[in-house]
Here is the input.
Amino acid sequence: MNSQTVLITGASSGIGLSFSEMFAQQGYSLVLTARNDARLMEIAEQLQTKYNVHVKTIAQDLSLSQAPALLAAELDAQNITIDILINNAGFAAYGPFTDTKWEEERDMITVNITALTELTKRLLPGMVSRNKGKILNVASTAAFQPGPLMAIYYATKAYVLSFSEALSYELRNTNITVTALAPGATSTNFESRANLGESRLFKSGAMSADEVARAGFNALMQGKRLVIPGAKNKLLASVVRFLPRKTVLKIVHYVQDKA
Here is the structure.
């Protein structure tokens, strides 16, 4: 049994669920959060039975502004120390900016940026006082260029990457590491929610959630600042640095569009 505790947001499906399984396999105690309380309880029971680990569930909707504070207060009330923070929760909205719904985009900004930042703000001081801890923020290959048809989502992931790398550097002389995980297209319920399943991007092939989580887990344990899973994704993230921005915009629009 591992003596450390990991908090995973967006733990009820996709990459977050894969992370939950991987940490449970290694004997970590888990705190899982997502909106669906019943689903979290189901996952907790499965992991506890399979791996004999302690799993705490705290249902919170991170699109609500008070959620990170309520989550942190619950941790304090139960005297739970978080050694590893996995900021995985996030979602996307698809379509031209003039056609998408502001309410959905506002919630996306809140989940992808605000909640991630506030949870880090609330939990990092404890790690600093102990001079020990790890944080993984799920960014995306979307972080490396603008994204026509998903303009706000790409911008939120650019924030996550920039924030993570800057924070990692600030903490370089401590025993705390910050890792940005930047996957490309990944088979989860993400593409269904974002109506992306018919885009050229997803039709060209996607990694599994387990593959992405494994790459993130390994990078986190090694204290890496950035990991891009998959050779194709690494190549694409590198190539866009050398292309004219106008060309990059055309390419991204093409792959995001429905085939």
Observations:
- The CA atoms of residues 63 and 107 lie 5 Å apart.
- The mean pLDDT is 94.
